[in-house]
Design goal:
Elements: E1 8-13, H1 17-26, E2 33-38, H2 41-50, E3 55-58, H3 67-77, E4 82-87, H4 92-100, E5 105-108, H5 113-122, H6 128-133, E6 141-142, H7 152-175, E7 179-180, E8 185-190, E9 207-216, E10 219-228, H8 229-238, H9 246-271, E11 277-278, E12 282-288, H10 290-293, E13 303-313, E14 318-327, H11 330-342
Parallel strand pairs: 1-2, 1-3, 2-6, 3-4, 4-5
Antiparallel strand pairs: 7-13, 8-13, 9-10, 9-11, 9-12, 10-14, 13-14
Helix pairs in contact: 2-3, 7-9, 8-9
Length: 343
């Protein structure tokens, strides 16, 4: 079968309904294709095993079975499909790993229609000039599993996923290590319950943290970076600040928070076509229980939208929690800016 003359069978696998929709919309308008969707790796493998597919667009960070697991299964079972990884995890090691597992190419989120068209052209899957001369106008065919309009939380989760990838890339390059990334958690919480957002927190442990406020276009929030004391020492040593010097540990905490906050907030804003102003980072406290470290939120009755991301360094006993909290008054403005993404 010639891929340039026959209808393509394309599978898009991503746990985010917004990302699936963006990926489908990034495909060339004149591409003759039947598109199906999978919400996780297990669903994708089930579809791949039961039918013939030409092309798989695959996310990496997914619950149940991630993209690495899907690539391994495709390789082990010799499933006949060309795979393009589309991910917010842009670490050099992530690219290397998917290439070794047989991925055809790696594309960063958010998807760029021109990059997609060039890639399809490079591999002979789509010829823009041929399509124009043939006046190929048939629309893309989507099956009954097409993604519906994503909800507010789902859209926020995908924005956070992309921003998380930008921040983790800087961290991975700084540490010359691979950063294990989760699916970001998005929840509505009362300020007094903010400490509950740290799923892995142990009230027996002591933590140190930094916060930094940001504002823009009616949206106001705060970024918080939290380390357990033991892991802060390990991280401080890992980046060359030393593990025993208290001053060095604080310096490492401030430097790391500035790097992660800036990358995350700037990427989050860029996706919304916004520029956020950043306040100066402030040391929240040191050597405190997580509930005490966040005690200044207890007296405020309003709800917050909270994004939690846990960064873990592979092969090291080092992790940290990044929280992005948005005020209740910000949510209406945020939804207005999200509207064009959710259509």
């Amino acid at each position: 079968m010639s891929l340039t003359t026959m209808s393509l069978r394309i599978l898009i696998c991503d746990d985010s309904s917004l990302a699936r929709k963006q990926m489908a919309r990034a495909l060339p308008d004149t591409l003759d294709a039947e598109i199906s969707f999978a919400e996780n790796g297990r669903s994708a493998l089930s579809l791949l095993r039961g039918n013939e597919w030409d092309l798989l667009f695959l996310d990496l960070n997914m619950p149940e079975l991630d993209g690495y697991g899907v690539l391994e299964a495709i390789q082990q079972e010799d499933l006949p499909v060309m795979t393009v990884v589309v991910s917010a995890d842009i670490q050099p090691q992530a690219r290397e790993r998917v290439t070794k597992l047989g991925a055809l190419a790696f594309i960063r989120k958010p998807t760029d229609p021109e990059r997609i068209a060039d890639l399809l052209n490079d591999y002979g899957i789509y010829r823009p000039t041929d399509a124009a001369s043939a006046r190929l106008t048939a629309p893309l065919h989507r099956d009954e599993a097409a993604p519906s309009r994503p909800g507010f939380h789902a859209a926020i989760q995908e924005l956070a996923n992309v921003a998380m990838g930008q921040a983790s890339d800087l961290l991975a390059r700084l540490l010359n290590a691979f950063v294990k990334l989760p699916v970001p958690k998005v929840d509505r919480l009362a300020r007094s319950e903010l400490y509950m957002a740290i799923a892995a927190a142990d009230e027996k442990d002591k933590y140190s943290g930094v916060c930094q406020g940001f504002t823009g276009a009616g949206i106001a929030g705060e970024a918080l970076l939290l380390f357990s004391d033991a892991q802060l020492k390990d991280m401080s040593a890992l980046v060359g600040y030393g593990s025993e010097d208290e001053t060095a540990a604080v310096e490492a905490l401030m430097d790391l928070s500035g790097m992660l906050f800036g990358a995350f907030i700037n990427s989050f804003g860029e996706q919304l076509n916004l520029t956020f102003g950043l306040a100066h980072p402030t040391l929240l406290g040191q050597h405190q229980k997580i509930s005490d470290l966040l005690r200044y939120h207890r007296s405020q009755p309003e709800e917050l939208l909270c994004i939690e991301i846990r960064y873990e360094i592979e092969g090291r006993n080092v992790s940290c929690d990044l929280l992005i909290v948005l005020t209740e008054r910000s949510l209406q403005h945020l939804e207005q800016h999200l509207h064009y993404l959710m259509e």
